[in-house]
Write a structure and sequence with these properties.
By secondary structure, the chain is an alpha/beta fold. It contains nine helices and seven strands; from the N terminus they run H-H-E-H-E-H-E-E-H-E-H-H-E-H-H-E.
Length: 267
């Protein structure tokens, strides 16, 4: 879905403006599980699509011994990821470069495993992202992804409004599955309910367990983000930010929004 930017700053905008590393729902527990279902092992050639600050890519290398390449559209994220890899002593085992997830800068059949954690729904064309992930995977390779998924039946207008506020596009379970099938995957599997509990959506801080959505950010982090919102969106943006947060938290706690891990093979 092509978003119109009518509810900015979105939840995704707020995360970026915070300047703080936040994880996807499920945190590093889900990242570990993603590596497990993808069959990562020493020497696996892995592509981490939309790799951000490199947290997951570094984890795959440290935990599974995989040889990881990360790709992200943001120069700032690529620079941060390279710095984080150097700090972790993994400059040789993890590489990062700039690239568009809808047009990956790699030849076909290049990777044993291709992973996208929580960034398939951010670009306008999620199908193009999945198609590209499959294209660059080797025959018999595994594609793994996890994304926001509707748990309740909502009208198209409700879904559209929420997506504008969220900054990413949740889909029905059947829609994600169909997109994976269209891309050519077989033996598609998933885990849904265990990653859809509200506490999974709050527990998104690296190195700190969060049980309450009001505790995701410290008071200082919230204040600093507020100043950045004012600087970019003005006072009107502050009211919109609080409105979007309320809508998002209600969708999660009321069981409208969940989270699903998918994986499958390239035949």
């Amino acid at each position: 879905m092509r978003r119109r930017g009518i509810h900015r700053p979105t939840i995704e905008d707020l995360v970026e403006l915070s300047g703080i590393e936040t994880l996807h729902p499920g945190g590093m527990e889900l990242t570990r599980r993603t590596g497990e279902v993808a069959g990562l092992k020493p020497g696996s050639r892995v592509l981490d699509v939309s790799s951000g600050r490199g947290t997951q890519a570094i984890f795959y290398a440290q935990t599974f011994g995989a040889d990881v390449t990360g790709v992200d559209l943001s120069d700032e994220m690529v620079a941060a990821a390279r710095a984080n890899a150097e700090t972790a002593g993994l400059s040789d085992g993890v590489r990062f470069q700039k690239g568009d997830s809808q047009d990956l800068p790699f030849p076909g059949k290049s990777f044993d495993v291709v992973i996208n954690e929580c960034a398939v729904g951010i670009p306008d064309d999620s199908q193009a992202v999945i198609n590209e992930m499959v294209r660059v995977a080797k025959i018999g390779g595994v594609i793994a992804m996890h994304e926001s998924t509707w748990r309740a039946s909502l009208s198209p207008a409700e879904k559209d409004d929420f997506s504008e506020r969220y900054g990413t596009t949740p889909l029905e379970f059947s829609e994600w599955e169909a997109m994976l099938e269209v891309a050519g995957l077989v033996n598609i599997q998933w885990e849904f309910d265990e990653w859809s509990m509200p506490e999974m959506f709050w527990n998104i801080r690296k190195g700190r367990v969060v049980h309450d959505h009001a505790k995701i950010f410290t008071k200082w982090e919230e204040f600093r983000t507020l100043l950045r919102v004012i600087g970019e969106f003005g006072l009107r943006g502050v009211f919109k930010a609080y409105e979007n947060k309320r809508v998002f938290f209600e969708a999660v706690t009321e069981g409208k929004l969940g989270y699903c891990l998918f994986w499958g093979e390239k035949p």
